[in-house]
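Marked as duplicate of an earlier ticket. Keeping the data here for the record.
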Amino acid sequence: MNPATLTPGCELGHEFNGIHLGKACAMGGNVVRVELPRPESYRFLKQDQAYIVRHYVYDANAIELHGNAHLTLSNVTIYSAPGHAFISTGDQHHWKLERCRIVKRPGTTRCITATADGCHISNSQGYFIIDRCDFSYNGDDCLNIHDNSVQGFRRIDDKTIRLSRVQRWRNPFCPGDLVEFRHADLSPAGIAANVAAVSWDEGREQCELEFASELPAELNDRSILF
């Protein structure tokens, strides 16, 4: 942290991701003794440096939006959340955040609001507006938007393809879903097909999609699937 402004980021700063410190003991006054797993790795610690420790990261989200449509949240203020402040998942579309704030509570020395993202949009269906909002002092991204696309496939037969580098939570293909194919430059290919069956190999991050109709022979294997 910048020791003068108590805001994230400063010259020659250090960040630790996923590092669990050892046992902490109060020694009296304002002194705490912390066991370090590898003391030699912490020799950069100097007097007058300032750090913030996230005790929780993805433990609990403040407001979760699951598959809503035509929804507006207005004038919502979040002072603290041990996870994401706003998270959107599923078939969420046509929604809006207006004049929503993720900020420090006035008069406190708290240096963090949401320990994870301010607004995390997973598998976006698009059609959302974020208007006059303030996402500040987050422990991770202020705004993180995932789409639900994947690029590249291997053709198994006329109706079946195999996808690699896919995860079930990130690319939740289901029977009945309509999949649109686009060219590698995102321009429309004019091809769409319904999924008939899905077979996952999660260990290899692969899945096979069988479609209800044959896929055109000229479909490029670098196409993008929505």
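See parent ticket for discussion. The chain is about 0% helix and 35% strand.
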